Amino acid sequence: MLxxxxxxxxxxxxxxxxxxxxxxxxRWVLDxxxxxxxxxxxxxxxxxxxxxxxxxxxxxxxxxxxxxxxASDLRDKGSIERVFSNAIASGSLSGKQKILLxxxxxxxxxxxxxxxAAISKLLRTNSCPIILTAxxxxxxxxxxIRNECELAPFKRxxxxxxxxxxxxxxxxxxxxxxxxxxxxxAESSNGDVRSAINDLQSRLLGGRDREKDIFENVRAxxxxxxxxxxxxxxxxxxxxxxxxxWIDENIPAEYETELDIARxxxxxxxxxxxEGRIRNSYWTYLKYSFDMISAGVALSKEKPYRKxxxxxxxxxxxxxxxxxxxxxxxxxxGKKIGAKVHANRKDALxxxxxxxxxxxxxxxxxxDLYGFEEEELAFILETTVESIKKTGKAKEKKxxxxxxxxxxxxxxxxxxxxxxxxxxEKKxxxxxDELKPVPSIQKEKSEKEKVPESKDKPKETKEKKKGSGTLMxxx
Length: 475
What we know:
This protein is mainly α. Among the domains are: 18-155, Rossmann fold, CATH 3.40.50.300; 317-383, no CATH class. It contains 20 helices and 5 strands. Residues 206-212 and 453-475 have low confidence and may be disordered.
Protein backbone atom coordinates (compact mmCIF):
# COMPACT_ATOMS: atom_id res chain seq x y z
CA MET A 1 0.00 0.00 0.00
CA LEU A 2 1.18 3.50 -0.76
CA UNK A 3 2.61 5.16 2.33
CA UNK A 4 0.80 8.46 1.84
CA UNK A 5 -2.56 6.62 1.91
CA UNK A 6 -1.56 4.47 4.86
CA UNK A 7 -0.40 7.49 6.89
CA UNK A 8 -3.16 9.88 5.78
CA UNK A 9 -4.27 12.23 8.59
CA UNK A 10 -7.40 11.17 10.48
CA UNK A 11 -8.49 14.75 11.28
CA UNK A 12 -7.95 18.31 10.08
CA UNK A 13 -5.27 18.99 12.66
CA UNK A 14 -3.18 16.23 11.12
CA UNK A 15 -2.80 18.13 7.84
CA UNK A 16 0.41 20.07 7.29
CA UNK A 17 0.32 23.82 6.69
CA UNK A 18 -2.55 26.11 5.61
CA UNK A 19 -3.68 26.74 9.20
CA UNK A 20 -6.09 29.60 8.40
CA UNK A 21 -7.83 27.67 5.62
CA UNK A 22 -8.19 24.62 7.84
CA UNK A 23 -9.90 26.79 10.48
CA UNK A 24 -12.25 28.11 7.77
CA UNK A 25 -13.10 24.54 6.70
CA UNK A 26 -13.76 23.47 10.30
CA ARG A 27 -16.17 26.38 10.86
CA TRP A 28 -17.88 25.52 7.56
CA VAL A 29 -18.53 21.86 8.42
CA LEU A 30 -19.55 22.62 12.02
CA ASP A 31 -22.16 25.08 10.75
CA UNK A 32 -23.55 22.38 8.47
CA UNK A 33 -23.74 19.94 11.40
CA UNK A 34 -25.70 22.61 13.31
CA UNK A 35 -28.15 22.83 10.36
CA UNK A 36 -26.75 26.19 9.27
CA UNK A 37 -26.37 25.89 5.50
CA UNK A 38 -23.43 27.27 3.57
CA UNK A 39 -22.49 27.48 -0.07
CA UNK A 40 -20.32 24.62 -1.44
CA UNK A 41 -16.63 24.84 -0.56
CA UNK A 42 -14.12 25.07 -3.43
CA UNK A 43 -10.65 24.11 -2.20
CA UNK A 44 -7.99 25.14 -4.69
CA UNK A 45 -4.21 25.05 -4.78
CA UNK A 46 -1.14 23.15 -6.03
CA UNK A 47 -1.07 19.36 -6.23
CA UNK A 48 -0.02 17.41 -3.16
CA UNK A 49 -1.11 20.02 -0.60
CA UNK A 50 -3.99 17.97 0.88
CA UNK A 51 -7.12 19.22 -0.92
CA UNK A 52 -8.71 15.78 -1.34
CA UNK A 53 -7.37 14.63 2.02
CA UNK A 54 -9.52 17.30 3.69
CA UNK A 55 -12.73 15.45 2.77
CA UNK A 56 -11.44 12.16 4.18
CA UNK A 57 -10.20 13.87 7.34
CA UNK A 58 -13.65 15.41 7.87
CA UNK A 59 -15.28 12.02 7.24
CA UNK A 60 -13.18 10.38 9.98
CA UNK A 61 -13.27 13.25 12.45
CA UNK A 62 -17.03 13.93 12.32
CA UNK A 63 -18.25 10.42 11.32
CA UNK A 64 -19.71 11.51 7.97
CA UNK A 65 -20.74 9.48 4.93
CA UNK A 66 -18.48 10.52 2.06
CA UNK A 67 -19.67 10.28 -1.55
CA UNK A 68 -16.83 10.94 -3.98
CA UNK A 69 -16.96 11.60 -7.70
CA UNK A 70 -14.57 13.13 -10.20
CA ALA A 71 -14.91 15.22 -13.33
CA SER A 72 -14.56 12.03 -15.40
CA ASP A 73 -17.86 10.78 -13.89
CA LEU A 74 -19.67 13.98 -14.88
CA ARG A 75 -19.01 14.44 -18.57
CA ASP A 76 -22.31 15.87 -19.80
CA LYS A 77 -25.51 17.43 -18.55
CA GLY A 78 -27.42 14.14 -18.49
CA SER A 79 -24.86 12.22 -16.44
CA ILE A 80 -24.47 15.13 -14.02
CA GLU A 81 -28.19 15.46 -13.35
CA ARG A 82 -28.51 11.72 -12.91
CA VAL A 83 -25.48 11.08 -10.66
CA PHE A 84 -25.35 14.38 -8.82
CA SER A 85 -29.07 14.72 -8.15
CA ASN A 86 -29.39 11.13 -6.91
CA ALA A 87 -26.46 11.60 -4.55
CA ILE A 88 -27.99 14.75 -3.04
CA ALA A 89 -31.59 13.57 -2.94
CA SER A 90 -31.14 10.01 -1.63
CA GLY A 91 -31.04 9.46 2.09
CA SER A 92 -28.04 8.02 3.87
CA LEU A 93 -28.33 4.28 4.54
CA SER A 94 -26.22 4.65 7.68
CA GLY A 95 -28.19 7.61 9.00
CA LYS A 96 -25.04 9.73 8.96
CA GLN A 97 -24.68 13.23 7.56
CA LYS A 98 -23.58 13.00 3.90
CA ILE A 99 -20.77 15.03 2.42
CA LEU A 100 -20.08 15.15 -1.33
CA LEU A 101 -16.61 15.43 -2.84
CA UNK A 102 -16.23 16.44 -6.50
CA UNK A 103 -12.55 16.06 -7.29
CA UNK A 104 -10.63 17.97 -9.96
CA UNK A 105 -13.45 20.12 -11.36
CA UNK A 106 -10.87 21.97 -13.46
CA UNK A 107 -10.40 18.73 -15.46
CA UNK A 108 -13.57 19.51 -17.42
CA UNK A 109 -12.82 20.06 -21.09
CA UNK A 110 -14.35 22.74 -23.26
CA UNK A 111 -15.99 19.96 -25.26
CA UNK A 112 -17.97 18.74 -22.25
CA UNK A 113 -21.52 19.41 -23.32
CA UNK A 114 -23.18 21.51 -20.65
CA UNK A 115 -21.29 19.84 -17.80
CA UNK A 116 -20.06 22.94 -15.99
CA ALA A 117 -23.34 24.82 -16.45
CA ALA A 118 -25.29 21.84 -15.05
CA ILE A 119 -23.04 21.58 -11.99
CA SER A 120 -23.31 25.34 -11.36
CA LYS A 121 -27.10 25.07 -11.42
CA LEU A 122 -27.18 22.13 -9.01
CA LEU A 123 -24.74 23.82 -6.61
CA ARG A 124 -27.27 26.60 -6.02
CA THR A 125 -29.79 24.13 -4.59
CA ASN A 126 -27.47 21.95 -2.53
CA SER A 127 -29.03 20.29 0.51
CA CYS A 128 -25.86 18.77 1.94
CA PRO A 129 -22.23 19.91 2.34
CA ILE A 130 -20.33 19.76 -0.95
CA ILE A 131 -16.56 20.06 -1.36
CA LEU A 132 -14.98 20.67 -4.77
CA THR A 133 -11.26 20.62 -5.51
CA ALA A 134 -9.26 22.24 -8.29
CA UNK A 135 -5.72 23.31 -9.09
CA UNK A 136 -6.50 26.37 -11.21
CA UNK A 137 -9.87 27.96 -10.37
CA UNK A 138 -9.22 31.08 -12.44
CA UNK A 139 -9.80 29.28 -15.71
CA UNK A 140 -12.61 31.06 -17.58
CA UNK A 141 -14.61 27.86 -17.96
CA UNK A 142 -14.90 27.57 -14.15
CA UNK A 143 -16.39 31.06 -13.65
CA UNK A 144 -19.91 29.66 -13.12
CA ILE A 145 -18.78 27.13 -10.49
CA ARG A 146 -16.49 29.66 -8.81
CA ASN A 147 -19.33 32.14 -8.33
CA GLU A 148 -21.47 29.53 -6.53
CA CYS A 149 -18.81 28.51 -3.99
CA GLU A 150 -16.88 29.71 -0.98
CA LEU A 151 -13.18 29.74 -1.87
CA ALA A 152 -10.66 27.97 0.37
CA PRO A 153 -7.11 28.53 -0.90
CA PHE A 154 -4.37 25.97 -0.20
CA LYS A 155 -0.77 27.12 -0.57
CA ARG A 156 2.39 25.08 -0.96
CA UNK A 157 3.46 23.57 2.36
CA UNK A 158 6.71 24.86 3.85
CA UNK A 159 9.82 22.70 3.98
CA UNK A 160 9.74 22.77 7.79
CA UNK A 161 6.17 21.42 7.91
CA UNK A 162 6.97 18.71 5.35
CA UNK A 163 10.03 17.67 7.36
CA UNK A 164 7.82 17.30 10.47
CA UNK A 165 5.41 15.05 8.54
CA UNK A 166 8.29 12.88 7.30
CA UNK A 167 9.75 12.61 10.81
CA UNK A 168 6.35 11.54 12.17
CA UNK A 169 5.96 8.86 9.47
CA UNK A 170 9.55 7.75 9.97
CA UNK A 171 8.89 7.17 13.67
CA UNK A 172 5.42 5.59 13.34
CA UNK A 173 6.49 3.20 10.56
CA UNK A 174 9.97 2.49 12.02
CA UNK A 175 11.68 3.36 8.74
CA UNK A 176 15.02 4.44 10.29
CA UNK A 177 15.50 7.17 7.69
CA UNK A 178 18.54 9.36 8.44
CA UNK A 179 17.92 13.04 9.23
CA UNK A 180 19.99 14.08 6.21
CA UNK A 181 17.70 12.16 3.86
CA UNK A 182 14.55 13.67 5.39
CA UNK A 183 16.01 17.17 5.12
CA UNK A 184 17.01 16.56 1.49
CA UNK A 185 13.57 15.23 0.54
CA ALA A 186 11.82 18.17 2.25
CA GLU A 187 14.15 20.61 0.48
CA SER A 188 13.40 19.20 -2.97
CA SER A 189 9.66 18.62 -2.45
CA ASN A 190 8.62 22.07 -3.73
CA GLY A 191 5.76 22.21 -1.21
CA ASP A 192 4.23 18.88 -2.34
CA VAL A 193 3.58 16.69 0.72
CA ARG A 194 2.39 13.67 -1.26
CA SER A 195 5.46 13.58 -3.50
CA ALA A 196 7.72 13.94 -0.44
CA ILE A 197 6.09 10.90 1.23
CA ASN A 198 6.28 8.92 -2.02
CA ASP A 199 9.92 9.88 -2.35
CA LEU A 200 10.62 8.67 1.19
CA GLN A 201 8.88 5.37 0.48
CA SER A 202 10.67 4.83 -2.82
CA ARG A 203 14.10 5.47 -1.32
CA LEU A 204 13.65 3.35 1.79
CA LEU A 205 11.07 0.66 1.06
CA GLY A 206 10.55 0.00 -2.62
CA GLY A 207 13.51 1.56 -4.41
CA ARG A 208 15.75 -1.52 -4.62
CA ASP A 209 12.90 -4.00 -5.12
CA ARG A 210 11.31 -1.96 -7.89
CA GLU A 211 14.63 -1.55 -9.66
CA LYS A 212 15.25 -5.28 -9.35
CA ASP A 213 11.76 -6.08 -10.68
CA ILE A 214 12.07 -3.83 -13.71
CA PHE A 215 15.47 -5.36 -14.60
CA GLU A 216 14.00 -8.87 -14.34
CA ASN A 217 10.97 -7.93 -16.44
CA VAL A 218 13.05 -6.30 -19.17
CA ARG A 219 15.44 -9.27 -19.23
CA ALA A 220 12.53 -11.73 -19.34
CA UNK A 221 11.03 -10.02 -22.41
CA UNK A 222 14.32 -9.73 -24.30
CA UNK A 223 15.34 -13.33 -23.54
CA UNK A 224 11.90 -14.92 -24.13
CA UNK A 225 11.54 -17.21 -27.13
CA UNK A 226 7.81 -17.98 -26.88
CA UNK A 227 4.64 -15.91 -26.81
CA UNK A 228 3.39 -17.26 -23.46
CA UNK A 229 6.80 -16.80 -21.85
CA UNK A 230 6.92 -13.09 -22.76
CA UNK A 231 3.25 -12.49 -21.94
CA UNK A 232 3.77 -13.65 -18.32
CA UNK A 233 5.69 -10.43 -17.63
CA UNK A 234 2.50 -8.39 -18.01
CA UNK A 235 0.61 -10.34 -15.35
CA UNK A 236 0.13 -8.77 -11.91
CA UNK A 237 0.96 -5.25 -10.76
CA UNK A 238 3.33 -3.66 -13.23
CA UNK A 239 3.91 -0.13 -14.46
CA UNK A 240 3.42 -0.55 -18.21
CA UNK A 241 4.51 2.98 -19.03
CA UNK A 242 7.76 2.49 -17.14
CA UNK A 243 8.32 -0.93 -18.72
CA UNK A 244 7.84 0.54 -22.18
CA UNK A 245 10.43 3.25 -21.51
CA TRP A 246 12.98 0.67 -20.32
CA ILE A 247 12.41 -1.47 -23.41
CA ASP A 248 12.65 1.57 -25.69
CA GLU A 249 15.98 2.55 -24.13
CA ASN A 250 17.54 -0.93 -24.27
CA ILE A 251 16.46 -2.42 -27.62
CA PRO A 252 19.74 -1.30 -29.32
CA ALA A 253 21.72 -2.69 -26.38
CA GLU A 254 20.07 -6.14 -26.51
CA TYR A 255 19.50 -6.65 -30.23
CA GLU A 256 22.42 -6.51 -32.65
CA THR A 257 21.11 -6.78 -36.20
CA GLU A 258 19.34 -3.90 -37.91
CA LEU A 259 16.37 -6.10 -38.79
CA ASP A 260 15.85 -7.23 -35.19
CA ILE A 261 16.06 -3.64 -33.94
CA ALA A 262 13.67 -2.38 -36.63
CA ARG A 263 11.08 -5.08 -35.90
CA UNK A 264 11.27 -4.47 -32.14
CA UNK A 265 10.65 -0.73 -32.58
CA UNK A 266 7.82 -1.50 -34.99
CA UNK A 267 5.92 -3.47 -32.34
CA UNK A 268 6.70 -0.84 -29.72
CA UNK A 269 5.19 1.83 -31.99
CA UNK A 270 2.11 -0.38 -32.50
CA UNK A 271 1.69 -0.43 -28.71
CA UNK A 272 1.66 3.40 -28.78
CA UNK A 273 -0.97 3.29 -31.50
CA UNK A 274 -3.28 1.11 -29.44
CA GLU A 275 -2.74 3.31 -26.39
CA GLY A 276 -3.90 6.27 -28.44
CA ARG A 277 -7.12 4.47 -29.20
CA ILE A 278 -7.54 3.59 -25.52
CA ARG A 279 -7.55 7.33 -24.71
CA ASN A 280 -10.67 7.55 -26.86
CA SER A 281 -12.38 5.07 -24.49
CA TYR A 282 -11.69 1.90 -26.54
CA TRP A 283 -10.42 -0.02 -23.53
CA THR A 284 -10.61 -3.37 -25.30
CA TYR A 285 -7.40 -2.38 -27.11
CA LEU A 286 -5.42 -2.46 -23.85
CA LYS A 287 -4.65 -6.19 -24.18
CA TYR A 288 -3.23 -5.59 -27.67
CA SER A 289 -0.91 -2.93 -26.31
CA PHE A 290 0.38 -5.41 -23.71
CA ASP A 291 0.94 -8.00 -26.44
CA MET A 292 2.98 -5.57 -28.54
CA ILE A 293 5.17 -4.50 -25.60
CA SER A 294 5.90 -8.04 -24.43
CA ALA A 295 5.52 -10.76 -27.06
CA GLY A 296 5.89 -8.42 -30.04
CA VAL A 297 9.30 -7.15 -28.90
CA ALA A 298 10.40 -10.60 -27.65
CA LEU A 299 9.69 -12.37 -30.95
CA SER A 300 11.30 -9.67 -33.12
CA LYS A 301 14.70 -11.38 -32.99
CA GLU A 302 15.82 -14.04 -35.47
CA LYS A 303 17.52 -16.07 -32.73
CA PRO A 304 18.12 -15.70 -28.97
CA TYR A 305 21.08 -13.62 -27.76
CA ARG A 306 23.09 -15.63 -25.21
CA LYS A 307 24.92 -12.71 -23.70
CA UNK A 308 24.85 -10.50 -20.64
CA UNK A 309 23.45 -7.03 -21.29
CA UNK A 310 23.79 -4.17 -18.85
CA UNK A 311 20.42 -2.46 -19.16
CA UNK A 312 20.44 1.34 -18.91
CA UNK A 313 18.05 3.59 -17.03
CA UNK A 314 15.79 5.48 -19.51
CA UNK A 315 17.30 8.85 -20.51
CA UNK A 316 13.83 10.32 -20.78
CA UNK A 317 13.18 9.73 -17.08
CA UNK A 318 16.59 11.16 -16.17
CA UNK A 319 15.92 14.33 -18.14
CA UNK A 320 12.41 14.71 -16.78
CA UNK A 321 13.62 14.10 -13.23
CA UNK A 322 16.38 16.65 -13.62
CA UNK A 323 14.05 19.33 -14.95
CA UNK A 324 10.90 18.73 -12.87
CA UNK A 325 12.03 21.02 -10.06
CA UNK A 326 13.10 23.68 -12.56
CA UNK A 327 9.78 23.51 -14.43
CA UNK A 328 7.81 23.72 -11.19
CA UNK A 329 9.87 26.72 -10.06
CA UNK A 330 9.38 28.52 -13.39
CA UNK A 331 5.65 27.85 -13.17
CA UNK A 332 5.36 29.47 -9.72
CA UNK A 333 7.56 32.43 -10.67
CA GLY A 334 5.57 32.92 -13.88
CA LYS A 335 2.31 33.01 -11.91
CA LYS A 336 3.61 35.67 -9.52
CA ILE A 337 5.01 37.84 -12.30
CA GLY A 338 1.89 37.34 -14.41
CA ALA A 339 -0.35 38.54 -11.57
CA LYS A 340 1.50 41.88 -11.62
CA VAL A 341 1.97 42.38 -15.36
CA HIS A 342 -1.48 40.99 -16.30
CA ALA A 343 -0.17 38.14 -18.45
CA ASN A 344 -0.34 34.35 -18.37
CA ARG A 345 2.51 32.59 -16.62
CA LYS A 346 4.31 31.59 -19.82
CA ASP A 347 4.29 35.09 -21.32
CA ALA A 348 5.23 36.56 -17.93
CA LEU A 349 8.55 34.67 -18.01
CA UNK A 350 9.71 36.99 -20.80
CA UNK A 351 10.17 39.60 -18.04
CA UNK A 352 12.59 37.34 -16.15
CA UNK A 353 15.82 38.94 -17.42
CA UNK A 354 14.52 42.40 -16.56
CA UNK A 355 13.49 41.29 -13.08
CA UNK A 356 16.88 39.58 -12.59
CA UNK A 357 18.63 42.87 -13.41
CA UNK A 358 16.28 44.79 -11.12
CA UNK A 359 16.86 42.27 -8.31
CA UNK A 360 20.59 42.92 -8.49
CA UNK A 361 19.90 46.63 -7.96
CA UNK A 362 17.08 46.56 -5.39
CA UNK A 363 16.45 43.03 -4.12
CA UNK A 364 14.12 44.00 -1.27
CA UNK A 365 11.80 46.00 -3.50
CA UNK A 366 11.47 43.10 -5.97
CA UNK A 367 10.61 40.68 -3.16
CA ASP A 368 8.00 43.07 -1.73
CA LEU A 369 6.40 43.65 -5.13
CA TYR A 370 6.19 40.07 -6.42
CA GLY A 371 6.16 38.15 -3.13
CA PHE A 372 9.06 35.86 -4.10
CA GLU A 373 10.31 33.25 -1.63
CA GLU A 374 14.04 32.93 -0.95
CA GLU A 375 14.24 29.82 -3.17
CA GLU A 376 12.53 31.64 -6.06
CA LEU A 377 14.76 34.70 -5.74
CA ALA A 378 17.85 32.46 -5.67
CA PHE A 379 16.59 30.76 -8.85
CA ILE A 380 16.08 34.11 -10.58
CA LEU A 381 19.53 35.39 -9.59
CA GLU A 382 21.10 32.00 -10.42
CA THR A 383 22.63 31.68 -6.98
CA THR A 384 22.05 29.69 -3.79
CA VAL A 385 19.56 30.27 -0.98
CA GLU A 386 22.49 30.61 1.43
CA SER A 387 23.88 33.44 -0.68
CA ILE A 388 20.50 35.21 -0.60
CA LYS A 389 20.37 34.82 3.17
CA LYS A 390 23.92 36.13 3.53
CA THR A 391 23.07 39.11 1.33
CA GLY A 392 20.01 39.80 3.47
CA LYS A 393 22.06 39.59 6.67
CA ALA A 394 24.76 41.83 5.20
CA LYS A 395 22.12 44.40 4.25
CA GLU A 396 20.60 44.25 7.73
CA LYS A 397 24.05 44.66 9.28
CA LYS A 398 24.87 47.58 6.99
CA UNK A 399 21.50 49.16 7.74
CA UNK A 400 22.13 48.76 11.46
CA UNK A 401 25.58 50.34 11.07
CA UNK A 402 24.11 53.26 9.13
CA UNK A 403 21.44 53.78 11.78
CA UNK A 404 24.10 53.59 14.48
CA UNK A 405 26.26 56.14 12.62
CA UNK A 406 23.25 58.41 12.25
CA UNK A 407 22.54 58.18 15.99
CA UNK A 408 26.18 58.94 16.78
CA UNK A 409 26.06 61.88 14.36
CA UNK A 410 22.96 63.22 16.08
CA UNK A 411 24.65 62.93 19.49
CA UNK A 412 27.79 64.68 18.16
CA UNK A 413 25.64 67.47 16.72
CA UNK A 414 23.83 67.89 20.04
CA UNK A 415 27.14 68.04 21.95
CA UNK A 416 28.62 70.47 19.43
CA UNK A 417 25.50 72.64 19.56
CA UNK A 418 25.61 72.69 23.34
CA UNK A 419 29.31 73.58 23.29
CA UNK A 420 28.73 76.36 20.78
CA UNK A 421 25.89 77.74 22.85
CA UNK A 422 28.05 77.79 25.97
CA UNK A 423 30.86 79.51 24.03
CA UNK A 424 28.47 82.17 22.67
CA GLU A 425 27.11 82.90 26.12
CA LYS A 426 30.63 83.27 27.50
CA LYS A 427 31.63 85.62 24.67
CA UNK A 428 28.54 87.77 25.21
CA UNK A 429 29.38 88.06 28.88
CA UNK A 430 32.94 89.14 28.06
CA UNK A 431 31.71 91.76 25.59
CA UNK A 432 29.34 93.13 28.18
CA ASP A 433 32.14 93.44 30.72
CA GLU A 434 34.30 95.37 28.24
CA LEU A 435 31.53 97.90 27.59
CA LYS A 436 30.95 98.52 31.31
CA PRO A 437 32.84 101.74 32.61
CA VAL A 438 35.77 101.31 34.98
CA PRO A 439 34.77 102.60 38.52
CA SER A 440 37.89 104.80 39.15
CA ILE A 441 37.59 106.60 35.83
CA GLN A 442 33.92 107.19 36.41
CA LYS A 443 34.66 108.66 39.86
CA GLU A 444 37.26 111.10 38.51
CA LYS A 445 34.89 112.15 35.80
CA SER A 446 32.11 112.92 38.25
CA GLU A 447 34.44 114.94 40.50
CA LYS A 448 35.59 117.05 37.58
CA GLU A 449 32.04 117.77 36.64
CA LYS A 450 31.24 118.85 40.17
CA VAL A 451 34.10 121.48 40.55
CA PRO A 452 33.03 124.07 37.94
CA GLU A 453 29.51 123.72 39.11
CA SER A 454 30.46 124.97 42.61
CA LYS A 455 32.36 127.99 41.23
CA ASP A 456 29.70 129.16 38.84
CA LYS A 457 26.85 129.01 41.26
CA PRO A 458 28.11 131.85 43.64
CA LYS A 459 28.92 134.03 40.66
CA GLU A 460 25.50 133.56 39.25
CA THR A 461 23.95 134.44 42.61
CA LYS A 462 26.02 137.54 42.95
CA GLU A 463 25.04 138.73 39.50
CA LYS A 464 21.43 138.02 40.26
CA LYS A 465 21.70 140.08 43.49
CA LYS A 466 23.41 142.89 41.69
CA GLY A 467 20.86 142.98 38.99
CA SER A 468 18.04 143.00 41.44
CA GLY A 469 19.56 145.92 43.39
CA THR A 470 19.88 148.02 40.27
CA LEU A 471 16.29 147.42 39.43
CA MET A 472 15.16 148.43 42.88
CA UNK A 473 17.22 151.53 42.73
CA UNK A 474 15.70 152.54 39.47
CA UNK A 475 12.23 152.06 40.81
